[in-house]
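Internal tracking record. Fields below are filled automatically when a chain is submitted to the structure queue. Please do not edit lines marked as system-generated. If the sequence contains nonstandard residues, flag them in the REMARKS field before resubmitting.
Queue: standard
Priority: normal
Entity type: single polypeptide chain
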Amino acid sequence: MSVLGGHPVGPSAWAVERFGRHAGALAVAVPVQLAKAHGKAHAAHLAAGLKKRSPYGVALAGLVRENPAEAARELGEAVRDVRGYEYAVINDHALFPFRYADRPRPLDRARLPANASPTRHRLFRAHGPQPPEGPFDVDEDLATEEYLGLREAFEELGASTRLVCVFFTADAKNGIHAIHWVAPVHVE
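SYSTEM-GENERATED OUTPUT FOLLOWS
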């Protein structure tokens, strides 16, 4: 629930459509969980004592998945493990948090970069904008590496699960600048 001009404002219709009865709780929990993730990542960065920002980025990348998973548990919803990373799945929608810039940038600049992990790319292809209905069964000797990865992604999150990208900008010094949650759209 948000507050605008001192008056409580409920979750958007978009959020209710995706998260059902948990939409209001998630609208509150996601910013809180991202702020907690920033705090822990900032502490790791300071403890490392390095001038480079890599300790912050590495810690933040893991924490932004773990913290929403805790919120999902508190709501009695699913948490799925994908290669050691936990993803919150609420009402068949997986929260897919991703820092798209280290300074304030418009949402239209949010992209999953080429150097994102193969697992994140696989999840995005399998459950993103226009996921296939499901992988066809293919004989083991005909299966490619990419096919096996897509099939694994379906099994890990569940074939009917759709992604909701939680795009945000943040840096070690200033914290979280902006948070957007969007259903990915297909871009040609």
